[in-house]
Design brief:
single chain, 5-stranded mixed sheet
């Protein structure tokens, strides 16, 4: 991959597939140090009945098996939504060099918004973070997914915040 945006478009394709199968539309792609795609996945929590089947975890697992090494040194993980604490921990443990994310997760993100696991200097490895890559597209996928779920459940959309 020559750009973060190109890699994010691949991750967005994985996110769309996850949404089509009823999972929260989050996708991830792992790139080798040379930029080749090593693995990709979308969320599979609903489909697999597995609370750990986040796109990031599945992508890291697949790459580790394929590379026959749990250390993914020099690799870049591209994900459509800021990883949660579980995924951030896995990213650190896998020794991923760089994380590229789309939308920030102000409720559960662990890579700079609510906490910053991947850059915690107390850990034995820190990850470089680039955020906001194609954030609008990532946010749009998530917004549409949850709006459709609310509509299917017969719930009204949340009221817009009152402006001052």
């Amino acid at each position: 991959m020559s750009t973060d945006e190109e890699a994010m478009r691949l991750a967005l394709a994985q996110a769309r597939q996850a949404g089509e199968r009823g999972d929260v539309p989050v996708g991830a792609v792992l790139l080798s140090p040379a930029g080749a795609v090593l693995a990709r996945a979308g969320n599979r929590r609903q489909v697999d009945g597995d609370p750990t089947a986040h796109a990031e975890i599945l992508t890291l697992r697949r790459a580790g098996v394929e590379q026959r090494d749990w250390r993914l040194t020099g690799c870049t993980l591209v994900v459509t939504l800021e990883p949660c604490t579980m995924c951030a921990g896995a990213i650190v443990l896998a020794r991923v060099q760089r994380l590229v994310l789309g939308a920030w997760d102000e409720k559960a993100g662990a890579c700079g918004s609510t906490r910053d696991v991947v850059r915690d200097s107390r850990l034995n490895h820190q990850v470089q973070v680039t955020g906001g890559v194609l954030a609008g597209e990532s946010t749009h996928l998530l917004t549409e997914f949850f709006a459709a779920r609310r509509q299917a459940a017969g719930q009204a959309p949340p009221e817009p915040a009152a402006s001052g």
